[in-house]
Amino acid sequence: MKKPILFFLLLASTTLLYAQSLVIRSGLHQEVYQIPINHDMISHTKTITAAPIDILYSMALNDKIDFMSGIKFVPYENRVKILPPDAVKSSGSVNWLYSTLGIPVTINTKLLNNNDRFNFYIATGVVPSYTIRETSVTFTSGSNGFYDLSEKQRFNDNKFNLLLNTGIGTRINFKYFEIGLIAEYYTGLIKTYTSEINVIGLLPESKSYYYQITSKGDYWGLNLEIIYPINKILNKL
Questions:
Q1: What is the value of pTM for the model shown?
Q2: Are 144 and 90 in contact (CB under 8 A)?
């Protein structure tokens, strides 16, 4: 996995010499993770977490296609609550947090282009990423004599992942800069963590349950972006 990371880092740093625009992007995002089909006892809290931050550069390959790369920081946070169906006080909750740093390599293809004012485009690309921070996972549980709850958390040992992204966006051109809005979905190829949850029935008539919740780092995002021509920045230096 390290060789693809080095390849994308070399590609990004080499093409930086030909960059034409600086792009700063941030907004809302939410992680998407896999839960069992039969998950009556599991309710996941959809948390809009701290905003990711992208610092990118862009270069035009032709009139229709732009190349983008740079650095992407993404914080992840999720909460899951476990509640046995006939429990009064027995419940558990899992909370995990971590952050990744990635090197996005993206192609923007313009669908509609009005050079004087605006354009619409689709974005496709890959993001090799690395987990740079993990915080302690908290698990709280209770028992009312009917169920006992336990949880085991495992993060990916090698910390590397590769995400594929697709999105659609629009940009409005002003005199000295552009403002854009883009909706994207990121699909991870490598499992980042697994949460194993055991719900053990303590009475003969109480059932026991086992659930496994996994994530590959998938998330959707809605980001605002500001695009500023690099030659204008250099002229001010």
A1: 0.79
A2: yes
List the structure tokens of 199. Answer: 């719900």
User: At 183, is the secondary structure helix, strand, or coil?
Assistant: strand
Residues in the chain: 237
Residues 6+ apart with CB under 8 A from 235: none
Return per-residue pLDDT of the chain as tens, 237 residues. Answer: 556 556 656 666 666 666 688 999 999 888 887 766 555 555 555 555 667 899 998 888 888 899 999 999 998 876 666 665 555 555 666 666 788 889 999 999 998 766 668 889 999 999 999 888 776 555 555 555 566 666 676 777 778 899 999 999 999 988 788 999 999 999 999 888 777 777 777 777 667 777 777 788 888 899 999 998 876 655 555
Task: Say which residues have a Cβ less than 8 Å from residue 180's Cβ, sequence separation at least 6.
Answer: 169, 170, 171, 172, 224, 225, 226, 227
Given a contact cutoff of 8 angstroms between Cβ atoms, the answer to whether 214 and 33 are in contact is yes
Element (H, E) at 15: helix 2-15
